[in-house]
Structure formats: C-alpha cells, structure tokens
Amino acid sequence: xxxxxxxxxxxxxxxxxxxxxxxxxxxxxxxxxxxxxxxxxxxxxxxxxxxxxxxxxxxxxxxxxxxxxxxxxxxxxxxxxxxxxxxxx
Length: 89
Description:
Blueprint lengths: L2 H40 L4 H42 L1
Helix pairs in contact: 1-2
C-alpha cells in the first residue's frame, strides 16, 4: 500500500468521525455552557440539574440527525468497500 493512500484513508476516517460526532458534541457544548452559566448564577451545583437537560438534548439531536448521519456513514462504507480491490493492488 502506498503511503499517500494510507494518509488519505486516515484523513477520510477522521473527517467522517468529525461529521458524525460534530452535531452531537456541539449541541452538548452549548447546553453545558448554558447550564454552567445558570448554575453559577443561581449557585445550584446539583449534578442532576445538568444531567437531565443534556440527556434530553442527546435524545433530540440523535432523533433529528440520525437518518442523515446514517446515510452519510453508509455512503462512506460503500465507498471504502468498493475501493478494496484497488487498495489491495
């Protein structure tokens, strides 16, 4: 295998990781920041106060983004599988 091909495959895998995990992580970052500011302002440092909204945001983002993420991932896997014969030569 060529070094350039290995680097390209690794770059595509990292890009796919960012595309699939990005929406969820950005949503959780925003919710965590808002909850942290509210907890600092009200001085309520209860862990369940931050857990429940984050859990709700995870559920909503997964419900909204899962079909698109699944389609993107299936296309990526299909592309990798079709490239296997050219990678092995």
